[in-house]
Amino acid sequence: MKKNILGFILLLFTVNLSHAQNTGFEYGINGGVTLSSMRFVFYVPQEKLIQGQGGLTVRYISEKNFGLQAELNYSQRGWKEQSDDIRINRYSRSISYLELPFMTHIYFNMGKRFRGVFNIGPQIGYCLSEKTLEKVLYAPGPSNNGENIIYEGIPSYYSQDVQKKFDYGIAGGGGLEFRTGIGSFILEGRYYFGLSDVFNNTRSDYFQASSNQVISIKLTYLTSFQ
User: Fold this and answer.
1) pTM above 0.85, yes or no
2) What is the greatest pairwise CA distance in the chain?
3) Which residues, 6+ apart, have CB-to-CB distance to 29 below 8 Å?
4) Which one of 15, 26, 142, 206 has the fewest beta carbons within 10 angstroms of its own beta carbon?
């Protein structure tokens, strides 16, 4: 299934490049928020962890309605757990990535200044750092004294670093572009489906799967410098 998805995306690139006619480069910056979680097997109840991202964007329009777009971003991901266990109030971890999406860009005009845009393609990334944001463990009674107490049965991955730093998956989304005399402003929503795991997934490991799942809302500014 994973190979079929990647093959389809690569086919889009091949078709797009083979029909390239007129070169048109635009360069710019992007920034926004990420709402991230992890696809854990076995299941872990979660809510979205809200953080940030930003980076550089290059877009190449190869022909009418089609082009390519690449980005180099610093992106904060991770997860925030929900638990019904009264011993564990909160746990969340932030994982920072350097990511490179390389996407087919599709647009259609909506009047003189507006365009609808759609981007889809593969994305790779590398884990730069990680940190625990919250680890609040609760013990009832006077023995707590406001301190964190470690209980038997606390998941082992709480103290386990990211084991697979290289990340890859599929990114796709759409939005609205506003074209002005000083450049283009694009508001876009995007979803990233990770195909790789963060932790090892052998029979002796805690998880059978642990992949990044990220919703991002971003604003991009592009100009051609002409």
Assistant:
1) no
2) 74
3) 54, 55, 56, 57, 220, 221
4) 142
Cα distance between residue 118 and residue 120, in whole Å: 7
For residue 188, which phi and psi values (nearest 5 degrees)? -140, 140
Residue linked to tokens 């925030």: 80
Tokens of 158: 């709480």
Token representation of residue 32: 């926004």
Query: What single letter denotes the amino acid at residue 70?
Result: A
Among residues 191, 129, 157, 136, the alpha carbon closest in space to that of 41 is found at 157
Phi, psi at residue 153, to the nearest 5°? 95, -5
pLDDT in tens, the chain (226 residues): 555 555 555 554 444 444 433 458 999 999 999 999 999 998 888 999 999 999 999 999 988 899 999 999 999 999 998 866 655 568 899 999 999 999 999 999 998 899 999 999 999 999 999 999 988 766 554 444 555 555 555 778 888 999 999 999 999 999 999 999 999 999 999 999 999 999 998 888 889 999 999 999 999 999 987 6
Please tell me the distance from the alpha carbon of residue 89 to that of residue 5, in angstroms, as a whole number.
38
